Every structure is written in C-alpha cells, then in structure tokens.
Amino acid sequence: MSMETSSFVMSRFIMLDEIGSGGCGVVYRARDRCSGEIVAMKCIRAYQGDCGEVVDRSDFGREVAAMEACRGHPYIVQPRAHGRRDDGEAVLIMEFVGPTLRHVLRRERRGRSRRSELEVRLAMRQLLSGVKRMHDAGLMHRDLKPDNVLVDGRGNLKICDLGLSQSTAEPPPYSNPIGTRWYCAPEILLSSTDYDERVDSWSLGCIMAELLVRKPPFRGSSDREQLGEILDVLGVDDIKQWGGYQGQRLPGGCGPDSFLRCFFPCPSEARMLRRPPLSEAGFEVLSGLLTCNPEKRMTVAQALQHRWFKEPDSASLRHRR
Length: 321
Hints:
This is [RNA-polymerase]-subunit kinase. The protein has 321 residues and is of the alpha+beta class. The protein has helices at 6-12, 60-69, 101-109, 117-136, 186-189, 198-213, 223-234, 237-240, 260-263, 267-273, 280-289, 300-304; strands at residues 13-22, 25-32, 38-44, 46-48, 54-56, 79-84, 90-95, 139-140, 149-151, 157-159, 166-167. The protein has a 5-stranded antiparallel sheet, with helices on both faces. The chain has a two-stranded antiparallel ribbon with strand order 4-5.
C-alpha cells in the first residue's frame, strides 16, 4: 500500500461525521466516492519539530507498516489508503468496523446477564488469532486493551491501533513505559526494556478476565499500585523466579501464592460465591496468560493449541458471517 498523494486521498473520500478523538488525532466516518464503502478516516495531528520537520504525534509510518504486514487477517482492521495533507497531517483510511469493545462492555454492564464462557471463548479465539498473526510477522502490539478492539455488527472482534507496535527483528532494549497501565505486564511495571511478545499475552489475559467480570481485573492509579494489585491476587513467588527480577522492592502486604481461582471459580461453586463460572480448561488459559513470570507465561500460539479451544462446541467458534 504505497503512500498516495493527499489530494487523491482527500478527493476520493467524503468525510461524514466524527466518531472518536484522542491525543493523537481524530477519527471520522467517511465514504469512498468510487465504491460507496463506508470507511474510518484517522487524521493524525502533526507539529513542527525544532528543525522545521513535520513530526507525527504517533508513529504513522509504524502503524501503516504493521497494518500492511497483517493485511488479509479477519481479526485485524484492514487498511484502505493513506497519505498526508498539505499541512503535514497524516491520514489513514481503514475499513469501518463498529464500536470499541470498551463501549460494548460498558453497555453490557448496564444489563443483568454476563457473557457465557462460550462467548468469552469465541472472543478470545479471535483476539489470540489476530495477535498470533502479528507475532508471526515479527511484531508486538504492546497496547492491547478493549479500547483498541473493535466489534462489528455480527459480534466479531478486530484489533486496531497498531501505532505502538514493535518489530522483534530489532533486538532489545525496547521502549518503556509503553502501553496502558491496567493492561501492562509485570515486567513492564518493573521497568524492564528486555521483554518479548509475551507482554501481549498478559494484556490478553486482562481482557479475558474483563470479558468474564465486565471490569478490568487490576486498576491501580500508579505503576506501583498496579503491581500491588496484581501481586495481591497472583502472589509474589512467581515474579521472584523470573530471571529478569533484580531484587526490586515489591509492594508490601502481598502473599506468596495465587488466589486467582477464587475470583473465577468452577461452575459448581460459582453460584454460591456469586462470581462468574469458568471451567478448568478455561481457567488454565486465563492463569497461563496471567502468569507474572514472563518466562513461564503462555504464548498466544500455546493458548490457541490449548484444549479449551478443542472442546466439542468449538465449531461455533468459527467467525460469523
């Protein structure tokens, strides 16, 4: 997908209405004049650097390259075109999908019923499949969260916002801090710059927990508080066994062992405890992703091969059409 001229991009698409905004720019709904397709137009603000050069507020080139590397995957948002305006503002045209998973979960919280384990399995299979495509292409996403997942009209999920992706062809050190605190792996919170694609596994574990309980599992207001919330549930023994742990002072009051199963009990105990039920196989995936020691954490490829995704009802997990 080569860089198109700004005049071509802007003349080809009719801007309709704003659908989202953030620190890096604004996203609009637009229409392709040629095909009539409704698309999403991401306009990324730019500013003049010290030497007069145009600087993006996010890495536009990195996002375009990552999307191109994942072209054709059903669970990653697909690019349509890109270019720059005369003022330096970058424009990225993508397929239009729907609301974010964050928006959908917020709407679900206002209802009474939770997602079934089968529905959570469907969502996780799609997310793991999309992230595996990134990892196979030598990319870490590094900012997986419900805000960066879109939901289409059939309930299928698509990963978006690849601007913080990192090529693993380049050796560490990698940038840190990175991502969003509530979904950051313990090694990121401990300031490691020598991490790998298993930081994405952790984020997916957080999303899986959120799909089950409809709220983020760990919600610290600082990196240290976030780490404390994690270790309070998962215990300190695991992170201390990590080869990259250098004796950093950990938050106090945390026990040695994990209590994660107490929050996601087996179906026979869930009603009494008034918590979401999770089968043994499902819990093996959740606990495998939410493993503090990255050396023992489940990779996305390992997760997809787990028996949870091979149970008799797995035929219903094929993405909907």
